[in-house]
Amino acid sequence: MRIVDDSSSSLEPQHPDTAKAPQKAGDGRWLSARRIAIGVVALVAIVLLGRAIGGYLPAFAGWVAAQGVWGPVIFIAGYAIATVAAVPGALLTLAAGAIFGIAAGVVYVFLGAVIGSSLAFLIARYVARPAVERRLAAYERFKQIDRAVGERGRKIVFLLRLSPALPFNVLNYALGLTRVRFRDYMIASIGMLPGTLLFVYSGQVAGDVAVLATGAGVERGTGYYLVLALGLLATATVTVWVTRIARNALRQETGSRE
Questions:
Q1: How far is CA 176 from each of CA 31, 75, 184, 186, 200, rounded to the nearest angstrom?
Q2: pLDDT digits (tens, 9 = 90+) for 31-83
Q3: Cα–Cα distance between 65 and 228 in angstroms, integer?
Q4: 172 CB contacts (<8 Å, ≥6 apart)?
Q5: 226, 63 contact by CB (below 8 A)
Q6: Degrees, nearest 5: CA angle 162-93-183
Q7: What are phi and psi of 93, to 5 degrees?
């Protein structure tokens, strides 16, 4: 499907009178304070999540471990099914970090997301195209995305994975309607890694808090948890930075501006 609408060339509403307004010093300080506040709230949320799941996580982790080599397979398959069904995967991604740790968690989530998003792509392209087209009619942004993907497929898909212009599950089906080659779509999936790492890392932090809530894990010492928290902060900072760069590049590629 090729959708072109010359009357609307931006992904965001355009405001010609204010697009180039100079930023005041006070505005900059406010933005910095807001980012710090968001970071603090996110950290508190992770701690609270860890305390909330403290009574359930050990049992679930034990069940997964009891499955042996099938544990990761079951998780990957479940993640793929959830992706096809358009079920938000944030909780599953956090759970991967808490159960498998950072390295294995990232691998399992990435595999599940790639398999699920690929199935959604193929379903949209070859099975349920009319239904997906009707669903996407409500997304004005898709018109610009479709045009840009038609010209620079792999690059645009990669940028969309780094900084989604549409919700992840919607984007998987939406890209199936574009002219991007399946091979390029698969290669560009690597753009999901920064966000995956951040959520899995957050999941491990929440999992460690859950362990502490049960009275265990104290032997690791303060240093371990300090390093873990600093690592999470560094990961979040880099992810936000990469996402911002990708968002700006995506605006340029699609002819969009603030």
A1: 37, 25, 12, 12, 27
A2: 556 655 655 555 455 445 445 544 555 566 677 778 888 889 988 998 899 88
A3: 23
A4: 83, 116, 117, 120, 121, 124
A5: no
A6: 45
A7: -65, -45
